[in-house]
Amino acid sequence: MLTAAVDPDQLSAALADSGVVIAPNQRLAAALRASWAAQQSASVWLAPAIYALDEWIAHSWQQWCEHHPDRAEQLQPLHPVLAQRLWRRAIGDCQPELDASRYAGLAGEAHQLLERWQLTTAELPLQRAASEQFAHWSRRYRTLLEEIGAATAEQQQQQLLDWFIANPSAQRHKLTLCGFQSLPPLRSALLDAAFANRGELSLGDPTPGQTVLLIRPSDPAVELYIAIDAALARIVAEPDCVAAVVVSDLSQRLSEVERIAQRLLAHYQLPADTVNLSASRPLAAQPIVATATMLLRGFSQPLPLADCLHLLYSPYWLAAGASSAELAAAELALRASGQSQFKLSELLAALSTVAAVESSPAPSSAHAALIWLREQWHGRRSLSDWATVINAGLTAFGLAGQRSLDSAEYQQLRQWQLALEELATLRPPVSVGGCVVDAGAAVSYLVELLALRPFQPQAGAPRLHLLGTLEAAGLYFDQLHWLGLSSQVLPAALSPNPLLSLDWQRSHAMPRSDHHREQQIGEQLLTTLRSCSAQMTVSCALRDGEQLLEPSPLLAAIASQAQTTAQQIPPWLQWTAQLSEPLDDQRAPALAADEQLYSRGSQLLKQQASMPFNAFLTQRLAAVPLAEPAVGVGPALRGSLLHRALETLLPAGTSSQQLAELAADPAALSAAVNAAAAAAIERAKRRNPPLRRDSVASCEQRTLVQLLQRWIHFELGRDAFTIEAVEQPVTTQIGALALSLSIDRIDRIGGHQLVIDYKTGRVNKNSWQGERLRDPQLPLYATALAEPPDGCSFAVLRGDDISLNGVAGPALLATAAVGDDGWQQQLALWQQQLQTLAEEFCSGDASLQIYNKTEESYQADLRRINRRAEWQPLADPSEERQ
């Protein structure tokens, strides 16, 4: 249990004669109570009058309400959720063109400042447009408050102040404040009116004698690691030691702090409750609550794929009993559908399809849950009734009922239940929608409530406390390390409210508006933390990324020495084992005869030609990205649609003469082209949901028709030909590598064959030149046929290019002709180059060399595995463009 850094005799004197001690927060108030308890020799004693300030105000307001029940009805406290909605209504009434949700929070903060400083909008300088707008919003907000008979917390405090002034007999004798940096005028006046005498309880040793060490780690990550490591090392050596690491920007680094603490706990083999991370997250972000809110959204509307996957792997509902293999199969089924959103029934259906009979969700449970959803989740109810329905619905879907919960999970569930109880007490006024709402509005209220409700698991008796700056003030620690103390952090940077004039805020000494005031607060914090710890260390990293950092100038007065620390390697990254033999990490095991490959098409050799290691990852380890839902129609789908349409429009056996006859009848040509495009789109709709929208399908059909018509006109200008084969399957053996290919089209021109591959992207036949093939697709087709062709070409179908681009004999492609001898030499060279690529792949060549930067860029998802950035500097931009 933490104790306060106060003199026990001073604390006893402050509480004597019915004295009251008030602290700024619950943490320090609890520490003061613990310090008081440590002085008591009896086993039972009266609870001391020690409060957090908000706690004392709430207690006093309750007393006032008991004395004035009639007036209390007219000053009901306004819930923060309703306050935000009331601000949105006020802003919308004044300026409907604005997005009220963007300004509601700022307006609420500005209004709170005015009330805490006992000011009104009439006193605002209105030279700035923002201040004038805020004044209009504020007046409308107060009108809405009066209409619903509610009051802000500051209005209640003003009522208390007036009551204490009018009733001196209600005053208490003595007040002692402990740990306050400053007080707003309203709260200060309230305390002065409520107590006849007011004093201060000093914290720590007023003349600390310890030396404060300033250290300069290389960067913030190393700084954090050093601080936590040093604290845990001392705790191991001195089990009774209580240490603290104060992180100036704890809220921004919460995940990083938690991760490093967990790893160091494992390194020192300490239990998890040794460390207490004293920072709260919104209740909405906790795993059980996040699962609950996603289920609630799924009750009313389809969920995005990401949310469905979150639910699928969540252990807190019906899906928890499925095996990992079943969950993975369900995910792949969802992804394969191509949809971007799914109903809850579709998610359960996908899971039930792949799950074993005995697995969860049991068919009866899932069926019963869906029946409940269909029967109950509709209509309009009060929020109190919706709270009951929500609880019943989540119970039907097995929320938190699939296994035993640990302590943190149980606390989450308990807080969730309290949030539902709080939802039941909300009474929204008619001005923000009224009490009777539909399911969507009820869930919206609940989500806003959860976002405002903080959650921090209760810890046992931790020895290391990871705190923010204000949370540490006033607590006693044997060792304290305050990190991140750069000149940008201490004194704190200014952050005035943008709706109020900066000069006006400074004139009233409002928070974060004046450099001099922030410097005083910074000096006071340094003095307090130093006097409340037996040993203190402060630190400032040398740099944060590319930015050089300087220590806070306030440290010069207390830090006697500076020490620069080298970058330390965390123990979980240290490698001390010795290799017994050299490891060649450029070569994988040779391909086994029965080894399964991800694919055996031309893409395999294309990847090997581009970057061997990526080919190994993709083809042998199946390291391929998971399918993502497409929002629209991408290049790959457009290419597939064009292939299918051409397959329908120009089947095997079609001759140039037949094509000319078709083109002679424009109506017949238009009908054939439209039919081919429509058939391709219809065929693709099942796996490509964007095409199910009529507007998207009609747009794609127009694009397809235009390209097909332009291609037909291009074909009419060629020499006489007959399409001999379409989508021709071919198998080939190159050394030990067997490949299965599909050739888009083979034309017969006189006595010659031309292999054609349709392309909707840019092509470069120079990829076939040089010592190493960069794009082996067409060379592979040309060498795989039993009857070697006389040429090969890409058929380019783009909005800016309709052409045949390839290499062939003079009778086939006049623009890219080579002699018969030249063509045979080209085939022989390709055969040799393909043999080399196949031998590389089969032998396990997995080098990190990049031969084709453009192709490698299409495999950017593999960079997390091949770690290209670590072993090869980025190419010069000018070279990349070239």
Description of the molecule:
It contains 34 helices and 26 strands. The chain is of the alpha/beta class and 882 residues long. It has 5 domains: 8-70 and 159-200, 3-Layer(aba) Sandwich (Rossmann fold); 79-151; 212-279 and 463-564, 3-Layer(aba) Sandwich (Rossmann fold); 282-455, PCRA, domain 4 (Orthogonal Bundle), CATH 1.10.486.10; 635-843, Lambda Exonuclease, Chain A (Alpha-Beta Complex). The protein has a 7-stranded parallel β-sheet. It has a 5-stranded mixed β-sheet with strand order 22-23-24-25-26, sandwiched between helices. Helix 5 (80-94) packs across helix 7, helix 8 runs parallel beside helix 9 (185-194) and helix 12 (287-300) runs antiparallel to helix 19 (439-452). The chain is elongated and about 115 Å long. It starts with 7 loop residues before the first helix and ends with a helix. Mean pLDDT is 87; it is low at 873-882.
